[in-house]
Amino acid sequence: MAHPLAAPLLSGSRRALARAITLSESTRADHEAEAQQLLAEVAPHAGQSIRVGLTGVPGVGKSTFIEALGIHLADAGHKVAVLAVDPSSARTGGSIMGDKTRMPQLTVHPGAYIRPSPASGNLGGVARRTREAIALCEAAGYDVVLVETVGVGQSETQVAAMTDLFVLLTLPNAGDELQGIKRGIMELADLCVVNKADSDLKSAIRAQTELRAALNLLTPHDAPWRPRSLRASALTGEGVPEVWDVVLEYVQEVDLETRRRTQTAQWFDELLREAAWRLFRNGLDGHKLRELRADVEAGRLTAIQGVAALTAG
Ligand code: GDP
């Protein structure tokens, strides 16, 4: 029997979408089973959006930028979903990113749907739920999904692994900025945008040049896409349409199908690793584990010997 949310979801009901995402966020076993049924039913209708990940340190202008980009796209007839990944909210119940009030105009736009970060679960759980939320949004007809992450270095890899293209927002004072940005995050970026160009154009131009050089250094010669750097002002809207033009160029140039297939296979591997660990852990003799751990800690055994003692035979 079809899940009762499937039909309204597929016809684009925001209410059904909100309820479906809530269902997928629930940790109750019966809800989880229901959510998996619903996801399996709507899966054939998912996958048709452009998935864009966005990151940047707090204060760089992520919500202002997403609102400007979202309105630009929704006004042009796109259906835009905004999802947030904020591990701080999972840990503390509070959130660095706050909630919907960060994007007041986009929130009330009929072509947009904004969903804050799930407030429970560990980072792995949040990543799973975000993947499911992307699929549910796509099934509800959203053709652009923007996934925002807080830019403090924990969730970026996860978000890059579930999106088609990853955008790093930076500030005009890139000299200081570049040192603060973890090299790992730069390596994930397909596009860097120097935001707040209105506040200091000269610095923004310099920052853009420096970023271009840094990205060039980081990108292998045979990469299918050379990461780009742009300037914009989320406040005035200048440069925002150009960011979208580059997204479209990327979508034309890069083989998204292969990227998504690889992502799905990697996701399978990750889930399998987790499941295998749980199975193994459940079968372990807790007393023996603690003893061996103490032996390793005290230097009576090497770490490799300790693990071998648990896994051999
Ligand atoms: P987030 O923490 O990254 O989401 O940053 P916000 O979007 O909340 O922006 C932080 C502050 O920067 C707010 O006061 C914004 O009004 C301001 N801001 C964002 N984008 C721009 C911009 O392009 N130019 C200027 N001058 N200020 C901006």
Automatic annotation (TrEMBL):
<dbReference type="GO" id="GO:0016787">
    <property type="term" value="F:hydrolase activity"/>
</dbReference>
<feature type="domain" description="AAA+ ATPase">
    <location>
        <begin position="48"/>
        <end position="215"/>
    </location>
</feature>
<protein>
    <submittedName>
        <fullName>Methylmalonyl Co-A mutase-associated GTPase MeaB</fullName>
        <ecNumber>3.6.5.-</ecNumber>
    </submittedName>
</protein>
<dbReference type="InterPro" id="IPR027417">
    <property type="entry name" value="P-loop_NTPase"/>
</dbReference>
<dbReference type="Pfam" id="PF03308">
    <property type="entry name" value="MeaB"/>
</dbReference>
<dbReference type="InterPro" id="IPR003593">
    <property type="entry name" value="AAA+_ATPase"/>
</dbReference>
<dbReference type="InterPro" id="IPR005129">
    <property type="entry name" value="GTPase_ArgK"/>
</dbReference>
<comment type="similarity">
    <text>Belongs to the SIMIBI class G3E GTPase family. ArgK/MeaB subfamily.</text>
</comment>
<keyword id="KW-0378">Hydrolase</keyword>
